[in-house]
Amino acid sequence: MDPRKVRKLNILLAVDGSEHAMAAARLLNDLPLTGDSTITAVAALVPRDAANHATLESALEQARTVLAGHDIQIETQLLTGSPPEVLIEFADQHSPDLIVLGARGLRAALGILLGGTVQQIVEYSTWPVLVVRAPYAGLRRILLIVDGSEYSQRALHYLGRFPLPPDTQVRLMHVLPPMPSPALVARSWPIGTEAVAPIPSYETEALLSKQAEEEEREGRALLERARKDLLEDGLSADTVLLRGDAATEIIEYVKARQIDLIVAGSRGLSPMKRLLLGSLSRKLIHYAGCSVLIVRGGNHVLD
After folding, report:
1. Which residues contact 199 (CB under 8 A, 6 or more apart)?
2. How large is the average pLDDT for residues 37-43?
3. How far apart are CA 55 and CA 253, in angstroms?
4. Is residue 60 a contact partner of residue 15, using CB atoms and an 8 Å limit?
5. Which of 3, 44, 196, 227 could pair covalently with 188 via S-S, beta carbons 3.0-4.6 A apart?
6. What is the phi/psi pair of residue 6, to 5°?
7. Please, what is the Cα angle at 174 between 8 and 23, to 5 degrees?
């Protein structure tokens, strides 16, 4: 059992018999879940596809078999209706601490990076969502994205209370914005409130250097605060500070360092009941090539 004070989890696992859904079940089986945790494996049968009934029943039993190593309550449910709608409705009725699903369904076309049902659930669910990609080879390296926002802080708080396999390595990353080109800065330098004048190149370079130093100092301080927060929860972490387009830098780092899981907060861009994903979260889920855990911007975090 994880020596940290792990919290019990009420987990909703969506299954359909695909390799990605089975990878999701295997990932859950690796988590040191507490005995009072629960996993409900759910499949959704579209009425017009009644022939799939046996396939989904088999998928539920396969998931139960994979999870049999846990001494916890495991339930299965076969729902009827449009998969994204019934799964989101089921989640809202049962208030899960985590929704887990494979990145692509059984019928996903070759080249599709994210299944349609999966995409709708991660866009419109108000609960933390873990999208798992096959093949699954363990949960050894985790990357938590830190940006100083309240949503990032929720993700930090969530991971600090999340059960992780022994010896899991955690890294905290903050990505600074790209620096403007000297030519762009030199073209217009504010004087007073309205007037502008050219700025000499040596002053441009000094200005940009000072700005870069200040941003880097603030970035390192942000990462250090996050590292200390995780340490209070018994979780050690290394820190990584990069500069550039956030999605590009993260995705390249993930590929180079063979990251198994990205954890990020999601801002949500709509005041409507259903909050849409922020653009960075959406890009990571589609293109990172590894599993991604999105902690939504609502009030639900692990206490």
Report:
1. 185, 186, 189, 207
2. 96
3. 38
4. yes
5. 196
6. -70, 150
7. 45
